[in-house]
Specification:
mainly beta, OB fold (Dihydrolipoamide Acetyltransferase, E2P), five-stranded mixed β-barrel, five-stranded antiparallel beta sheet, 5 helices, 11% helix, S1 RNA binding domain protein, S1_domain, structural constituent of ribosome, NA-bd_OB-fold, mRNA binding
Length: 306
Protein backbone atom coordinates (compact mmCIF):
# COMPACT_ATOMS: atom_id res chain seq x y z
CA UNK A 1 0.00 0.00 0.00
CA UNK A 2 2.91 2.34 -0.70
CA UNK A 3 2.05 5.98 0.03
CA UNK A 4 -1.74 5.68 -0.26
CA UNK A 5 -4.03 7.87 1.86
CA UNK A 6 -4.93 6.05 5.08
CA UNK A 7 -7.88 3.74 4.61
CA UNK A 8 -7.58 3.14 0.88
CA UNK A 9 -5.62 -0.09 1.18
CA UNK A 10 -8.12 -1.59 3.63
CA UNK A 11 -11.11 -0.32 1.67
CA UNK A 12 -9.98 -1.95 -1.54
CA UNK A 13 -8.93 -5.22 0.04
CA UNK A 14 -5.20 -4.50 -0.16
CA UNK A 15 -4.53 -4.45 3.59
CA UNK A 16 -1.77 -6.65 4.88
CA UNK A 17 -2.67 -10.03 6.39
CA UNK A 18 -0.52 -10.29 9.54
CA UNK A 19 -0.14 -14.07 9.78
CA UNK A 20 2.97 -14.72 11.81
CA UNK A 21 6.13 -13.29 13.33
CA UNK A 22 8.23 -14.20 10.31
CA UNK A 23 5.99 -12.10 8.01
CA UNK A 24 6.15 -9.14 10.40
CA UNK A 25 9.94 -9.34 10.68
CA UNK A 26 10.20 -9.42 6.89
CA UNK A 27 8.08 -6.25 6.71
CA UNK A 28 10.29 -4.62 9.35
CA UNK A 29 13.47 -5.47 7.45
CA UNK A 30 12.11 -4.02 4.19
CA UNK A 31 10.60 -0.92 5.88
CA UNK A 32 7.34 -1.79 4.18
CA UNK A 33 4.49 0.61 4.91
CA UNK A 34 1.57 -1.31 6.41
CA UNK A 35 -1.96 -0.39 7.43
CA UNK A 36 -4.32 -1.57 10.16
CA UNK A 37 -6.97 -0.19 12.53
CA UNK A 38 -6.14 1.76 15.67
CA UNK A 39 -8.39 0.29 18.38
CA UNK A 40 -7.64 2.75 21.21
CA UNK A 41 -5.44 5.58 22.45
CA UNK A 42 -4.18 5.22 26.02
CA UNK A 43 -3.86 7.98 28.62
CA UNK A 44 -0.35 8.82 27.41
CA UNK A 45 -1.59 9.14 23.81
CA UNK A 46 0.03 5.95 22.55
CA UNK A 47 -2.04 4.33 19.79
CA UNK A 48 -2.87 0.64 20.12
CA UNK A 49 -3.17 -1.11 16.75
CA UNK A 50 -4.80 -4.42 15.95
CA UNK A 51 -2.41 -6.65 14.00
CA UNK A 52 -4.54 -9.77 14.37
CA UNK A 53 -1.61 -12.02 15.21
CA UNK A 54 -0.48 -9.64 17.95
CA UNK A 55 -0.98 -6.16 19.33
CA UNK A 56 1.00 -3.20 18.04
CA UNK A 57 1.76 0.11 19.71
CA UNK A 58 2.58 3.48 18.16
CA UNK A 59 4.27 5.56 20.89
CA UNK A 60 3.01 9.15 21.08
CA UNK A 61 6.29 10.56 19.71
CA UNK A 62 5.91 8.26 16.67
CA UNK A 63 2.24 9.13 16.11
CA UNK A 64 2.73 11.81 13.45
CA UNK A 65 5.22 14.20 11.94
CA UNK A 66 5.58 17.26 14.18
CA UNK A 67 4.30 15.73 17.42
CA UNK A 68 7.71 15.66 19.08
CA UNK A 69 8.50 19.20 17.90
CA UNK A 70 5.11 20.54 19.03
CA UNK A 71 4.07 21.71 15.55
CA UNK A 72 1.35 19.03 15.34
CA UNK A 73 -1.32 18.75 18.04
CA UNK A 74 -2.21 15.49 19.76
CA UNK A 75 -5.64 15.55 18.14
CA UNK A 76 -3.82 14.16 15.07
CA UNK A 77 -3.24 11.01 17.12
CA UNK A 78 -6.46 10.82 19.15
CA UNK A 79 -8.65 11.25 16.07
CA UNK A 80 -7.22 8.09 14.48
CA UNK A 81 -8.95 5.76 16.97
CA UNK A 82 -11.24 3.26 15.18
CA UNK A 83 -9.70 4.27 11.85
CA UNK A 84 -6.95 2.76 9.67
CA UNK A 85 -3.42 4.03 10.28
CA UNK A 86 -0.24 3.69 8.24
CA UNK A 87 2.96 2.57 9.94
CA UNK A 88 6.25 0.73 9.66
CA UNK A 89 7.43 -1.85 12.18
CA UNK A 90 10.50 -0.68 14.15
CA UNK A 91 10.93 -3.54 16.60
CA UNK A 92 9.34 -5.98 19.02
CA UNK A 93 8.90 -6.16 22.77
CA UNK A 94 6.72 -7.97 25.32
CA UNK A 95 3.90 -6.82 27.56
CA UNK A 96 3.62 -7.53 31.31
CA UNK A 97 2.19 -11.00 30.59
CA UNK A 98 5.03 -11.92 28.24
CA UNK A 99 2.96 -11.54 25.06
CA UNK A 100 4.78 -10.18 21.99
CA UNK A 101 4.06 -6.58 21.04
CA UNK A 102 5.13 -4.88 17.79
CA UNK A 103 6.62 -1.40 18.03
CA UNK A 104 5.29 0.78 15.22
CA UNK A 105 5.94 4.23 13.78
CA UNK A 106 3.37 6.24 11.86
CA UNK A 107 5.84 9.12 11.77
CA UNK A 108 8.37 6.98 9.89
CA UNK A 109 5.73 5.98 7.34
CA UNK A 110 4.99 9.68 6.79
CA UNK A 111 8.70 10.46 6.41
CA UNK A 112 9.06 7.77 3.76
CA UNK A 113 5.93 9.04 2.00
CA UNK A 114 7.21 12.61 2.03
CA UNK A 115 10.72 11.66 0.84
CA UNK A 116 9.78 9.12 -1.85
CA UNK A 117 6.40 10.36 -3.10
CA UNK A 118 5.37 13.85 -2.06
CA UNK A 119 8.82 15.32 -2.78
CA UNK A 120 8.49 14.09 -6.37
CA UNK A 121 5.14 15.78 -7.03
CA UNK A 122 5.01 18.67 -9.47
CA UNK A 123 2.34 21.29 -10.27
CA UNK A 124 -0.31 19.74 -12.48
CA UNK A 125 0.07 16.20 -11.12
CA UNK A 126 -3.27 14.45 -10.57
CA UNK A 127 -3.33 12.42 -7.36
CA UNK A 128 -5.66 10.35 -5.21
CA UNK A 129 -6.81 11.77 -1.88
CA UNK A 130 -9.31 11.12 0.91
CA UNK A 131 -11.39 13.87 2.56
CA UNK A 132 -10.55 13.98 6.28
CA UNK A 133 -12.47 16.99 7.58
CA UNK A 134 -14.45 19.92 6.23
CA UNK A 135 -14.12 23.56 7.26
CA UNK A 136 -15.97 26.61 5.89
CA UNK A 137 -12.80 27.64 4.02
CA UNK A 138 -12.01 24.29 2.42
CA UNK A 139 -11.65 20.53 2.49
CA UNK A 140 -8.66 18.93 4.21
CA UNK A 141 -7.51 15.74 2.54
CA UNK A 142 -5.02 12.96 3.20
CA UNK A 143 -2.63 12.72 0.26
CA UNK A 144 -0.56 9.84 1.64
CA UNK A 145 -0.01 8.06 4.97
CA UNK A 146 -2.02 10.68 6.87
CA UNK A 147 -0.17 13.73 5.49
CA UNK A 148 -2.70 16.55 5.09
CA UNK A 149 -3.29 19.09 2.35
CA UNK A 150 -6.07 21.59 1.67
CA UNK A 151 -8.43 22.15 -1.23
CA UNK A 152 -9.68 25.75 -0.76
CA UNK A 153 -13.43 26.17 -1.17
CA UNK A 154 -13.04 28.31 -4.31
CA UNK A 155 -10.98 25.53 -5.92
CA UNK A 156 -13.49 22.75 -5.31
CA UNK A 157 -15.73 23.48 -8.30
CA UNK A 158 -16.62 26.22 -10.77
CA UNK A 159 -20.16 26.30 -9.41
CA UNK A 160 -19.92 28.18 -6.13
CA UNK A 161 -20.88 26.41 -2.92
CA UNK A 162 -21.51 27.75 0.58
CA UNK A 163 -19.57 24.99 2.36
CA UNK A 164 -17.40 22.02 1.26
CA UNK A 165 -20.07 19.64 2.63
CA UNK A 166 -22.14 20.65 -0.40
CA UNK A 167 -19.65 18.66 -2.45
CA UNK A 168 -17.81 16.22 -0.16
CA UNK A 169 -18.22 14.09 2.94
CA UNK A 170 -15.49 12.91 5.31
CA UNK A 171 -13.89 9.65 4.27
CA UNK A 172 -14.74 10.21 0.61
CA UNK A 173 -12.22 9.13 -2.01
CA UNK A 174 -11.49 11.83 -4.57
CA UNK A 175 -8.93 13.10 -7.04
CA UNK A 176 -7.09 16.39 -6.80
CA UNK A 177 -4.50 18.25 -8.83
CA UNK A 178 -1.35 19.82 -7.40
CA UNK A 179 -1.81 23.55 -7.92
CA UNK A 180 1.45 24.72 -6.39
CA UNK A 181 4.20 23.72 -3.96
CA UNK A 182 5.19 26.12 -1.20
CA UNK A 183 8.79 26.84 -0.25
CA UNK A 184 8.37 24.71 2.88
CA UNK A 185 7.21 21.75 0.77
CA UNK A 186 3.50 22.08 1.52
CA UNK A 187 1.26 20.92 -1.31
CA UNK A 188 -1.57 23.23 -2.42
CA UNK A 189 -4.40 21.44 -4.23
CA UNK A 190 -7.25 22.18 -6.59
CA UNK A 191 -10.19 20.08 -7.76
CA UNK A 192 -12.32 21.99 -10.26
CA UNK A 193 -9.94 21.40 -13.19
CA UNK A 194 -10.76 17.68 -13.08
CA UNK A 195 -14.52 18.20 -13.46
CA UNK A 196 -14.55 19.19 -17.12
CA UNK A 197 -14.72 22.39 -19.17
CA UNK A 198 -17.83 24.47 -19.82
CA UNK A 199 -18.31 22.77 -23.19
CA UNK A 200 -17.89 19.28 -21.75
CA UNK A 201 -20.48 19.93 -19.08
CA UNK A 202 -22.89 21.85 -21.30
CA UNK A 203 -22.87 19.03 -23.85
CA UNK A 204 -25.31 17.16 -21.62
CA UNK A 205 -28.01 19.84 -21.89
CA UNK A 206 -30.15 21.25 -24.70
CA UNK A 207 -32.64 24.09 -25.09
CA UNK A 208 -36.20 22.95 -24.46
CA UNK A 209 -35.30 20.40 -21.78
CA UNK A 210 -36.47 20.58 -18.18
CA UNK A 211 -33.81 19.32 -15.78
CA UNK A 212 -32.93 19.28 -12.10
CA UNK A 213 -30.59 21.66 -10.32
CA UNK A 214 -29.61 23.26 -7.00
CA UNK A 215 -30.05 26.92 -6.11
CA UNK A 216 -26.56 28.26 -5.36
CA UNK A 217 -26.99 32.05 -5.39
CA UNK A 218 -29.92 34.48 -5.36
CA UNK A 219 -29.15 37.94 -6.78
CA UNK A 220 -31.38 40.88 -7.65
CA UNK A 221 -30.75 40.27 -11.36
CA UNK A 222 -31.36 36.53 -11.31
CA UNK A 223 -30.82 33.17 -9.66
CA UNK A 224 -27.83 30.91 -10.28
CA UNK A 225 -28.78 27.25 -10.54
CA UNK A 226 -26.13 24.53 -10.49
CA UNK A 227 -26.70 21.90 -13.17
CA UNK A 228 -23.40 20.06 -12.56
CA UNK A 229 -20.52 20.90 -10.19
CA UNK A 230 -18.77 22.77 -13.01
CA UNK A 231 -21.82 24.28 -14.68
CA UNK A 232 -24.42 26.79 -13.52
CA UNK A 233 -27.13 28.63 -15.44
CA UNK A 234 -28.86 31.92 -14.72
CA UNK A 235 -32.60 31.90 -14.16
CA UNK A 236 -34.98 34.83 -14.11
CA UNK A 237 -35.66 36.15 -10.62
CA UNK A 238 -38.47 34.47 -8.72
CA UNK A 239 -39.88 35.14 -5.26
CA UNK A 240 -39.53 32.70 -2.35
CA UNK A 241 -36.48 30.95 -3.76
CA UNK A 242 -33.40 30.55 -1.55
CA UNK A 243 -29.94 29.03 -1.56
CA UNK A 244 -29.77 25.27 -1.03
CA UNK A 245 -33.16 24.43 -2.50
CA UNK A 246 -33.55 21.84 -5.21
CA UNK A 247 -35.20 23.03 -8.40
CA UNK A 248 -36.61 21.93 -11.72
CA UNK A 249 -35.58 24.34 -14.47
CA UNK A 250 -36.53 24.85 -18.10
CA UNK A 251 -33.56 25.53 -20.41
CA UNK A 252 -34.33 28.54 -22.61
CA UNK A 253 -31.02 28.66 -24.45
CA UNK A 254 -27.42 27.44 -24.44
CA UNK A 255 -24.95 30.12 -25.58
CA UNK A 256 -21.33 28.86 -25.88
CA UNK A 257 -19.99 32.16 -27.25
CA UNK A 258 -21.19 33.89 -24.08
CA UNK A 259 -20.61 30.86 -21.81
CA UNK A 260 -24.20 31.14 -20.58
CA UNK A 261 -27.20 28.91 -20.06
CA UNK A 262 -30.48 30.76 -19.62
CA UNK A 263 -33.08 29.11 -17.40
CA UNK A 264 -36.61 29.46 -16.08
CA UNK A 265 -37.35 27.99 -12.66
CA UNK A 266 -40.38 25.73 -12.94
CA UNK A 267 -40.41 24.77 -9.27
CA UNK A 268 -38.15 25.03 -6.22
CA UNK A 269 -38.46 22.93 -3.10
CA UNK A 270 -36.67 21.71 0.00
CA UNK A 271 -35.07 18.28 -0.24
CA UNK A 272 -32.38 16.33 1.54
CA UNK A 273 -29.09 16.98 -0.25
CA UNK A 274 -27.78 14.03 -2.26
CA UNK A 275 -24.05 13.73 -2.93
CA UNK A 276 -23.89 12.01 -6.29
CA UNK A 277 -20.66 10.25 -7.29
CA UNK A 278 -18.24 12.76 -8.76
CA UNK A 279 -17.91 12.56 -12.54
CA UNK A 280 -14.22 13.16 -13.25
CA UNK A 281 -12.92 14.00 -16.71
CA UNK A 282 -9.27 13.58 -15.62
CA UNK A 283 -8.00 11.03 -13.10
CA UNK A 284 -4.27 10.71 -13.83
CA UNK A 285 -1.28 12.26 -15.54
CA UNK A 286 -0.19 15.88 -15.43
CA UNK A 287 -2.07 19.03 -16.45
CA UNK A 288 0.04 21.90 -17.77
CA UNK A 289 -2.84 24.15 -18.80
CA UNK A 290 -6.61 23.95 -18.41
CA UNK A 291 -9.11 26.30 -20.04
CA UNK A 292 -12.66 26.19 -18.74
CA UNK A 293 -14.14 28.70 -21.16
CA UNK A 294 -15.01 27.81 -24.81
CA UNK A 295 -12.36 28.82 -27.39
CA UNK A 296 -14.51 31.53 -29.01
CA UNK A 297 -15.75 33.03 -25.74
CA UNK A 298 -14.65 36.60 -25.01
CA UNK A 299 -14.23 35.83 -21.31
CA UNK A 300 -11.34 33.45 -20.63
CA UNK A 301 -11.24 31.25 -17.51
CA UNK A 302 -8.10 29.16 -17.29
CA UNK A 303 -5.49 27.65 -14.97
CA UNK A 304 -1.80 27.28 -15.74
CA UNK A 305 0.22 24.93 -13.56
CA UNK A 306 3.85 25.92 -13.12
Amino acid sequence: MQYLPEGLASRHGDGTNFKNMAALKECMASQRILESRAVMCDSEHNLIVNLGYMRGIIPRCEGALGIQEGTTRDIAIISRVNKPVSFVITGFTEDAEGNPVALLSRKRAQELCRENYIASLRPGDVIKAVATHLEPFGCFVDIGCGIASLIPIDSISVSRISHPRDRFKTGQELYAVVKSIEADGRICLSHKELLGTWEQNAAGFSAGETVGGIIRSVEHYGIFVELTPNLAGLAEFKEDVYVGQSASVYIKSVLPDKMKIKLIIVDSFDAEPILDPIDYYVTDGNLHHWQYSPPDCEKVIETTFE
